[in-house]
Amino acid sequence: MLSMESFVSNTDSSSIYFNTTVSAGPSPNSLHTLHQSELISYYERVVIVTVNRVGLSTVLGLTGVVSNVLNIYVFLKQGLHIVMNISFFVLAISGLLRTINFLWMTVCNNPQIDSLDVPFLFQDVQFLTSAWISGSLARISIFITTFMTIQRCISILKPMEIKTIITSLRSVIILFCIFLVNGTIAIPICLSWYLDQTFYPSKNRTLLGLVIRDNSAEAQSVVYILHATLFVISLVGLIFFTVVLILKMEQLSQWRQDALSKNQNQAISKRDKKMSKIVSLLAIFTIVLSTPTVTVSIASTFVSAFSVSGNQVNLYFAVWSFAYAFGAIEANP
């Protein structure tokens, strides 16, 4: 088991180091080499992260909480007996959890937060309680939107059978499975990282901070791969079914103009057509704003330098702050 300062911030050396040994830190020569290889400085990173994850995310987090609460109220008022309302309702809950999580992250990423006399390290607590939850909720939102897009595709392809194919019970089961699968991804990290009282030489006191077990590197690799894989699957699936939905809507419009499918046009109500347009716009919105997160997740998985322990740690945190900002925008319905 390893006891460490998970994120040792040193403003003089303008870097942050991830210690993987109990007592020995990087040598002066290795630190100098590390600093020279960084694409951006620690100061530049702090400025970028503060703007994105403190300033911008605070505003988006507050507006997101309000808008998602209003959406939850509206869908409850309309009734969850409507199948699509169940998906919209769960998506709003996911959005609410994401925005609350973003607000907690803005608190922990405030540059002045470490000056508070509290018995724990905000960054360590945030890493375990918020960072991985944020990724899981982002994937959940994409998967829910994909499921909604599939529903609309079926409503166009099989308008008379849609109510028997997609029932309320089946929707609840599918949505529950989406939460379950994405939520369990972080379990290996939670089992290999935990919070405990640790002495921090840089602060000369014992604080509640992150402690890692010996198998942390393996667990982190597995989680990153699963994290990126599910992101890619969800985004590719969303793009595919969004394209299918748009093409089928366009085909249906031509059928109406040519009067070649009168019965099918009558079977699809105006409300269903409007709902399909709303879902397709929501899907496009999600695709655009999720692509940066998926791209950064892939880079974090396969580029060793682009990680918490890599020699581009400043770039890592700076780029991820942009991904979080896009995610905060996405969580605002």
From TrEMBL:
Pfam families: 7tm_1. One of its GO terms (molecular function) is G protein-coupled receptor activity. It is found in: Cell membrane. CDD domains: 7tm_classA_rhodopsin-like. SUPFAM superfamilies: Family A G protein-coupled receptor-like. The chain crosses the membrane at residues 54-76, 88-107, 127-150, 171-195, 224-247, 278-307, 313-331. It is a multi-pass membrane protein. It comes from the Eukaryota. PROSITE patterns: G_PROTEIN_RECEP_F1_2. InterPro entries: GPCR_Rhodpsn, GPCR_Rhodpsn_7TM, TAAR. Keywords: Cell membrane, G-protein coupled receptor, Membrane, Receptor, Transducer, Transmembrane, Transmembrane helix. The keyword Cell cycle does not apply. Residues 67-333 form the G-protein coupled receptors family 1 profile domain. GO terms for cellular component: plasma membrane. This is Melanopsin.
